[in-house]
């Protein structure tokens, strides 16, 4: 299942 | 990094550059919503607050991009509210920004991934960005028209988050990465541009000007 990792986008 | 996110960020940079050039070259911010630009500046500052907290060397493009976004949006607000204040169309830029900021802040406190200051600021920034363009779209509906260059700005601004949606689909599929809050807000944000996208594709691309009601 997809993981909710940190916010690594602008 | 994937092609969608790369072009999304480039489209965002292009939008910021187009607006700056428009105001600087024409020495006028007619047709530009100062409130939208203020909201964008707030979005960047609250989202990239880490730059101010523990400043690390500009060792990667991401840090440089964040600084560019913050400084360009603050400079744009300076041009609108100070340097070219005389050309600011305050009468038509009349959407109440509080009606956007307060719900975004409230929602950020209710729906977030972690209840800590930085995370809530980030969530607030994401929710606010989704609706930050509304004063600009409201101003265009009040004046009944949009300069061609302003239409290009809006197209680039709207395309940036539309491309991010493709990036999120790509990352879900290939990196099994998901950022639910950013995705939901990004979809809402892009939907708000649909009406404008339709007008842009059917008019501006043919060299006509956007005049409302269409």
UniProtKB/TrEMBL annotation, chain B:
InterPro entries: ER_ret_rcpt (IPR000133). It is a multi-pass membrane protein. Signal peptide: none annotated. The chain crosses the membrane at residues 36-55, 67-84, 96-115, 121-140, 182-201. It holds the Pfam family ER_lumen_recept. GO terms for molecular function: ER retention sequence binding. GO terms for cellular component: COPI-coated vesicle membrane; endoplasmic reticulum membrane. It is found in: Cytoplasmic vesicle, COPI-coated vesicle membrane; Endoplasmic reticulum membrane. GO terms for biological process: protein retention in ER lumen; protein transport; vesicle-mediated transport. The keyword Cytoplasm does not apply. It comes from the Eukaryota. Keywords: Cytoplasmic vesicle, Endoplasmic reticulum, ER-Golgi transport, Membrane, Protein transport, Receptor, Transmembrane, Transmembrane helix, Transport. Belongs to the ERD2 family. This is ER lumen protein-retaining receptor. It comes from Oikopleura dioica (Tunicate).
């Amino acid at each position: 299942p997809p993981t909710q990792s940190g916010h690594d986008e602008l | 990094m994937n092609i969608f996110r790369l072009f999304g960020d480039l489209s965002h940079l292009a939008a910021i550059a187009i607006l700056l050039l428009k105001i600087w070259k024409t020495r006028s911010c007619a047709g530009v919503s100062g409130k939208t630009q203020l909201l964008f500046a707030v979005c960047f500052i609250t989202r990239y607050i880490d730059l101010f907290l523990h400043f690390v060397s500009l060792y990667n493009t991401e840090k440089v991009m964040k600084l560019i976004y913050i400084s360009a949006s603050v400079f744009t607000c300076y041009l609108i509210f100070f340097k070219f204040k005389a050309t600011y169309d305050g009468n038509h830029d009349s959407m109440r920004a509080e009606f956007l900021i307060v719900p975004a802040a409230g929602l950020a406190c209710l729906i977030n991934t972690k209840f800590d200051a930085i995370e809530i600021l980030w969530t607030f920034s994401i929710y606010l960005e989704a609706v930050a363009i509304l004063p600009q779209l409201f101003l265009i509906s009040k004046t009944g028209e949009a300069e061609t260059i302003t239409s290009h700005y809006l197209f680039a601004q709207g395309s940036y988050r539309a491309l991010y949606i493709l990036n999120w689909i790509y990352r879900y599929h290939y990196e099994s990465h998901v950022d639910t809050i950013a995705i939901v807000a990004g979809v809402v944000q892009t939907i708000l541009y649909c009406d404008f996208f339709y007008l842009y594709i059917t008019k501006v691309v043919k060299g006509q000007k956007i005049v409302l009601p269409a």
